[in-house]
Amino acid sequence: MPLTTVQQTRLQEDLRGLIKGEVRCDEVTQLLYATDASILQSRPVCIVCPRNIEDVAAVVRYAAESGISIHARGAGTSLTGESLGGGIVLIFSRYMRRILETGGDFVTVQPGLLRRRLNGIISQSQHRLFGPLAGNVSSASLGSILARNGAGLHYLRYGLPSDHLVSMTVILANGDLLTLDRNALIQPLQGDGSVALAQEIAYGKEYVYAGKVARILDNRSNKQRAESANRLFICRAGYAEHAVLQGESAQSVDLTRLFSGSEGTLGITVEATLKTVSLPQRKSAAAFFFNSLSQAIEAVSIILPLRPVLCELIDRRRLNLVREWDARYRPLIPSDAEAALLVELDAGTLESPICTAECRDRLKHLIHLVQTKQLCYHALRVNTEEDFQLFDQVIRRSELALGRLHSSIQPVPLFDDVAVPLNTMSDVVNELLPLLQRCRVTASLSGHVGQGHLRIHPLLDLSQSDAMSTLSPLAESVYSMILRYGGTISSEWGTGLLKSQFVPQQFPHLFPLFREIKETFDPQYLLNPGKVIPLETNWMLSFRRGLEKRGHTPPDPQWSSGSRLAKSKPLQGETPPDQVEIQLKWEPAYIFESAYQCNGCGECLRFDRQSRVCPLFRGTATIEFAPRSKADLLRGILENDIDLETLTCGRAKEIADTCFQCRMCDIECPSQTDINVLSFRSKAAHVAAHGLPLHDLIVSRLDNILNQLTPVNGFFNAAMRNRSVRWFLEKTLQIPQRRFMPALARRSYLNQIRWSSLRHRLSPEQTEKERAALFVDTFDNYFDPQLAELAVQILEHNGFSVHVPLRQRSSGLHSFSVGHADRAERLARYNIAQMSDLIRLGYKIITLEPASASCLLKDYQHLPDHNDSGLTAENVFDFCSFVHRHHLLDKLQNDFHPVPYRAGYHAPCRGLAISASLATDEMPAEKLLRLIPGLDVQRIERGCCGMAGFWGGQQKNYRHSLQIGTPLFRALRQPDIDFGVSDCSACCAQMAHGSRKRAIHPIRLLAAGYGFLPVAALKQT
Ligand SMILES: Cc1cc2nc3c(=O)[nH]c(=O)nc-3n(C[C@H](O)[C@H](O)[C@H](O)COP(=O)(O)OP(=O)(O)OC[C@H]3O[C@@H](n4cnc5c(N)ncnc54)[C@H](O)[C@@H]3O)c2cc1C
Ligand code: SF4
Ligand code: SF4
Known about the structure:
It contains 44 helices and 31 strands. The protein is α/β, with parallel strands linked by helices. The strands form nine sheets. Strands 5-6-12-8-9 form a five-stranded antiparallel beta sheet. A four-stranded mixed beta sheet has the order 1-2-4-3, with helices on one face. A hairpin with a 3-residue loop joins strand 5 and strand 6. It is globular, with a radius of gyration of 30 Å. It binds flavin-adenine dinucleotide (FAD) and iron/sulfur cluster (2 copies). The site of one iron/sulfur cluster has 14 residues, from helix 22, helix 25 and helix 26. Residues 403, 598-604, 627-628, 631, 665, 669, 671, 673, 675 line the site of one iron/sulfur cluster.
């Protein structure tokens, strides 16, 4: 039963008094933890981020006394609603995510640590890793990997996670703490309750529970034993009772086997010691392409005797989506392939590698076998390290690819994790395909077929009335068929809320025993209820509302027209706004689409260096700061899960403010969710209700303010060097004292041109030359006019006719960033009108900063009723991309003088976003600078610099901003780097501030190369 507001407040106060960690019961936070990557939703009553084991025990005891359920949660990317529930959600990924100890071949960790992060660290320091991957590559936490114990991608190489578990500490529903060690298995004494009690006093609680479990297992009926013996080794449904009794006479009890895979329903893991393995060698792999799915399945039986360590099936639909995702995959994946098998053979480990010749021969043999049977029509060897990277990426992206479907037909993850005995796989697929046809459902089929795993995704338009009624009988039919073949309803993901109702069907005899086990550890059903042992309610009731709206246009005029809510009720601690305008009026359909496009996959919860997403989430590991939360919030509002005016409360603003619109998630989100636009609209709603705070107002109108200040630039610059003035500005305007302030120019660049001999540049020219119009945004116009002038010189040197339109205004980038929607809209309309006229005259628009280009290219695109926004999108370039394009056409002047320096290049986030490049891709600026003789350009990829326009220029963000940039600063401080380079002036300012080395725009280096700037001047910049 839902708690009343008073009960919730009491709950929050009680828990805050009991623990050191964080407790939140507000409805915005509840909403952010109400969904995961599944199709279900359930709103928790309270969210707790424990700091230590004592916190966890205290919360569990409190919940037990109050009869509230507890749901452990890692990153919340389960596909079956495993960590969803209406009680207290325990978030481990916030504070309990440390490595506690590392040894030669083991590591002790807290449950919230992500597997990817652990492996990033120990593969560098020890050349080892935690092998099994039973979960989402990016975001699976170790607590959840153990809680699910799934056979994942690497099962053939490493086996199950529980095979790598040495010991674990768990907290039971009554607050008892058990330490379970596989090197010290328990041999319980036989006897009645008094014997057990004596044993507990003598040895501890572990013995009592081991004894109870041993008695349950001893009493198994023959039918139960038969069912237990017949289960697939990779079955992940029910409890793993079959693995508990160990030793020759099966007298030792291994409770770690029972807790592994129990989905947080028997106990909560608070610490675990895991075995690590030496890094694998990767030498022999191949990709096979087939004309039909059945041929691919048939080929599996030929491949398996060669004992592959990986065997993945990908179907046509996913292959096509992967090809479209990135041009680099196109030469690898034939466009007509109906299915592919990606196979890897064992090449040993770093410690004991298999010799290269043997690997090569085995691979040759494998390819020969598949080809002689005439099953595949094309085979591709994977040879180099680069090939292996692409091989891994294709597998990974094929898993995520269905999220890229933007139509109303969406994949429904309902039976996406079944497994069958290997010898039945062909028969299963041959029966499944006609079954789907009969139900008029198309589906995508893939999976780790080397271990019998199949991922079946029906593709349905859930807005159609018959789709929901198709779903339930379809699930029944598919599961019945899978079970008939001796398969399992789950081999990895667990059964969660979605599939637990089918557990009794799979284990009719063992199911009562599962109940007994559950009641032994959790008699009140408080730990993650509804998982493994199903609840009475139908899972359809928890169906995530709004799922059926993906890919559709908004049906509800209430919000689609941009509603005004007169006299909204004030929220706690807020001043009542007279009128709340929900700023959804900029292309409402797009907001709708973006909010529903996020499927919760967790790809944006990353910490590794191959990715930039999300700078604000990385340092804090707070889920509320992750891109996903912005979509969750908007979706909740659109669904009326929370009131419309909640969007204007402080907590919603806090969530929206944890996006500084760097646009990195644009390119890294597999579903292409536009988080940037969602956070802008949320901020705008707050501004509409409460107005802009002074700092944000200044940021938004900075161009106007600087225009007034240029005549008194001397006075302004002197004031900015004065400590007292800076102290005053910090206290009043939130401008940090310690932040270096660049000198304001005496005249803006546009004014300089107006009054100089270069006035002719102010009018468009009738000329045969290629035409470029310079867009000079606020920073360069007022603080760095020289940069604009150098850019013009470079362009003119390369044969362009350059026009500097006087009638241009700031891009509005800063108005977008603070949610000042009205001004952003005015500036966008003005600039589009000016630029489109020039474009029609044959001009390309060149910006000096990628951030300005990204604003013109992306932020302007959703302006309603403006046909010309598309025109600008095709004709706007940032400087380095434009000049590099010229170079590719072989038109660039190559008369560079030597510039004898070593520069560390940092790619700005918005630069990566506009060129749709991954963090590790080479950027146009880098390629250009490599043309300059003597200049050694080293790419430094250490993530975002933390400045993000004016975000880092606000006192409350100052420290966090430097913290984000610290890895970059450290790399720049290396003595062999002379200075930093970045094509964003804000990045340069931050790099110089953090590294105490100069950081310059590539335009200056190109200008020095062409001789427009003395090389020595680079040192003085
Ligand atoms: C695109 C995509 C691909 C995926 N691919 C795979 C795949 O190949 N294989 C696979 O197995 N899964 C896969 N998954 C499912 C999902 O990523 C995994 O289930 C992942 O391991 C979940 O990790 P998490 O930290 O998000 O766990 P959560 O969703 O937060 O929790 C999962 C379960 O673990 C329990 N749990 C978490 N922490 C603890 C703890 N400390 N103590 C006790 N119980 C705990 C929770 O209660 C819950 O039952 C995929 C998901 C996505 C979105
Ligand atoms: S924002 Fe994108 S990457 Fe993040 S959870 Fe949503 S769909 Fe996945
Ligand atoms: S735009 Fe940048 S800051 Fe905002 S959510 Fe995406 S990655 Fe994070």
